[in-house]
């Protein structure tokens, strides 16, 4: 096995060590809020917002840190830190001290850690991709969602074994990521402009590179809309619909999330086998539009397995959209700005989710989960129509190897 392939293997193993626990958290956290504590839809929306809220304030600093320091050391350190919140929550549950505000504190801590792990991981991707960037991005996306399915499967046993063993498993797997990251080569920062200025100015320069880009700017807007309307639906409406419409348990919530992820993994395998997509921007936009159609079908109140089928097809569309969006950003970013550009992308991908979770939660409390799906689709279709009309996103194609956009901002 070549040195590059070994690094790719350890990189992917590191990704898995973080996303499996995130899969456990995706099911276990709303189950603790909605089922164990029997909180309302709007309170669940606030709780889910808390998991994403730190990213709004910290992920750009995480991107700057990853551009300025060894990304391998960042991953090692923050994987160790990430093991603490789940172990602490397990201890509090053992002491019978679980409360809504304890869960809010846990969510804020995990959101903070993720704001530093994700940019470092994204910044390293080009180092292990070689000349197969779109394929590597797609495989990474597929592995990310595929590994989460294992987390979902583990969390589905929450009804029978309780949350404490699952939280300890969560903590152990995250900690293993620090050991895996030791296998990666040092990832020192790219040479930087000596006149880059203060940290705040360096963050601003990364934002300007993305916003002024005719490729990255529209893609960022599309991903922000996706995180607001589709992301909010995913983390809030889905567990509420399963609980209130289908009277489901933790295993049913797990099945609903897994249906989405299986669809994403399926389309990832198909994309890799087909060798990628040429019209990346068009694929991104069409996937988001078609995904909305499946959500509207889900809103008609299908039987539970029909609902799962719509989530499967929605997951396929989501896999295309996320893969194309991430590829556009990775290949367009100047090397010295890459981690900052990807942190801006991550901010766009999850930055709308806190507001979306809050909005979807309050809408669901007022008009029900199924009707709120229609609100989500209407919102994202309006943004989609505006970008189709005002930008060239639908015309974008891959850049030649080792070429990025001209640097339009300092």
Please give a quick description of this structure.
The chain has 410 residues and is mainly alpha-helical. It is built from 15 helices and no strands.
Observed structural traits:
410 residues; mainly alpha; Growth Hormone, Chain: A
Summarize the helix and strand pattern as letters: HHHHHHHHHHHHHHH
Mean model confidence by pLDDT: 83
- First-last Cα distance: 40 Å
Annotated CATH homologous superfamily? MFS general substrate transporter like domains
Q: In percent, how helical is the residue content?
A: over 70%
Instruction: Identify the overall geometry.
Output: globular
The CATH architecture designation is Up-down Bundle
Tell me the structural class. mainly alpha
How large, in whole angstroms, is the Cα Rg?
A: 20 Å
**Low-pLDDT segments, ≥5 res:** none
Q: What is the CATH third-level topology name? A: Growth Hormone, Chain: A
Main beta sheet: strand number and arrangement?
Answer: none
Count of distinct strands = 0
SS element count, helices: 15
Number of domains: 1
Name of the level-1 CATH class:
Mainly Alpha
């Amino acid at each position: 096995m070549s040195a590059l392939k070994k690094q790719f293997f350890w990189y992917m193993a590191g990704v898995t060590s973080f996303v499996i626990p995130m899969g456990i958290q995706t099911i276990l956290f709303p189950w603790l809020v909605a089922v164990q504590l029997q909180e309302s839809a709007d309170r669940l929306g606030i709780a889910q917002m808390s998991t994403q809220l730190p990213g709004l304030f910290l992920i750009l600093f995480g991107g700057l840190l990853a551009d300025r320091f060894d990304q391998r050391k960042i991953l090692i350190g923050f994987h160790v830190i990430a093991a603490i919140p789940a172990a602490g929550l397990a201890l509090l549950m053992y002491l019978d001290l679980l409360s809504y505000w304890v869960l809010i504190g846990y969510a804020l801590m995990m959101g903070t850690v993720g704001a530093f792990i994700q940019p470092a991981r994204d910044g390293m991707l080009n180092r292990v991709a070689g000349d197969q960037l779109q394929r590597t991005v797609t495989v990474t996306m597929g592995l990310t969602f595929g590994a989460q399915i294992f987390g979902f499967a583990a969390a589905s046993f929450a009804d029978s074994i309780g949350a404490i063993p699952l939280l300890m498993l969560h903590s152990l797997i995250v900690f293993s990521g620090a050991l895996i990251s030791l296998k990666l080569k040092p990832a020192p920062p790219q040479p930087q402009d000596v006149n880059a200025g203060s940290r705040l100015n360096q963050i601003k320069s990364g934002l300007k590179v993305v916003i002024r880009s005719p490729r990255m700017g529209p893609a960022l807007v599309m991903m922000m809309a996706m995180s607001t309307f589709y992301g909010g639906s995913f983390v809030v409406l889905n567990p509420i619909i399963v609980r209130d419409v289908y009277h489901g348990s933790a295993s049913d919530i797990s099945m609903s999330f897994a249906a989405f992820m299986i669809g994403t993994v399926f389309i990832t395998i198909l994309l890799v086998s087909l060798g990628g997509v040429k019209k990346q921007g068009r694929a991104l936009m069409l996937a988001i539009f078609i995904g909305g159609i499946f959500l509207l079908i889900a809103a008609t109140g299908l039987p539970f397995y029909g609902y799962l089928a719509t989530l499967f097809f929605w997951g396929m569309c989501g896999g295309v959209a996320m893969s194309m969006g991430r590829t556009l950003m990775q290949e367009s970013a100047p090397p010295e700005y890459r981690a900052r550009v990807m942190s801006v992308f991550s901010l766009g991908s999850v930055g709308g989710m806190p507001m979306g979770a809050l909005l979807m939660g309050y809408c669901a409390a007022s008009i029900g989960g199924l009707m709120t799906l229609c609100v989500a689709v209407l919102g994202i279709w309006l943004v989609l129509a505006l970008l189709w009309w005002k930008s060239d996103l639908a015309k974008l194609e891959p850049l030649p190897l080792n070429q990025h956009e001209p640097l339009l901002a300092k």
